[in-house]
Amino acid sequence: MANASAKKTVVSNSAKIKRMDKMYLIVNGIYILFRFIVFYSSLSWKLVLGYLFTLTIESYIYIQLYRISQPKFDLQENLLSSGQDLSAPGLVSYMFDIIYVTWITHILSLFTNYAWWIYSAIPLYMIYTLGGKLIALLKYRNSNSNSAQPPTKSNRSEKMEKRKTKVKYAR
């Protein structure tokens, strides 16, 4: 069957997007219901700004995931592209992680305002990841600049060269 893998990717992406739709509505619905309606007396402008900030990030990433997962068809409804696989590692998985951290922060912040500190894990992880790559890049550059100079010989190799005698071949 032609494009079997692409068709599986379309089905998988569609299922993930449907689950994301449900969770997006559930988590944000619960937060709005309890924080803005039930516990209205404990609402502050900082909480509103925090929620709007995280909701904006979450919504932007969600829209990007939705766009890249959409299949493309030609005029005869033949599958041209299955869209990017949402179970692929890399940037897509980081985008899902940011959405999950946002949901955890929203739910836990209903119980304590200290839950907003969980969101600081995102930039800290970025610094950790990019910092490690930056250090590796600097080490690589330093090793290349050192290799441009002729290597110095160790004492042992100098002594071995002095002891070398020419091999004489007898006939």
UniProtKB/TrEMBL annotation:
Region listing for Disordered, in residue ranges: 144-171
| Subcellular location per the Swiss-Prot or TrEMBL entry | Endoplasmic reticulum membrane
Compositional bias (Polar residues) spans? 144-154
Assign the protein's first listed, main location to one coarse class.
endoplasmic reticulum
Q: Where is the composition biased (Basic residues)?
A: 162-171
Pfam families for the chain: TMEM208_SND2
Range of residues in the leader sequence: none
The membrane topology term of the UniProt record is: Multi-pass membrane protein
- List, in alphabetical order, the GO biological process terms annotated in this UniProt record: vacuolar protein processing
Q: Name one GO cellular component term.
A: vacuole
Q: Which domain of life is it from?
A: Eukaryota
Keywords assigned by UniProt, alphabetized: Endoplasmic reticulum, Membrane, Transmembrane, Transmembrane helix
Keyword Membrane assigned: yes
- The answer, when asked if Endoplasmic reticulum is one of the entry's keywords, is yes
Ranges that cross the membrane = 23-42, 48-65, 86-108, 114-138
The UniProt family comment states:
Belongs to the TMEM208 family.
Name of this chain's protein: DUF788-domain-containing protein
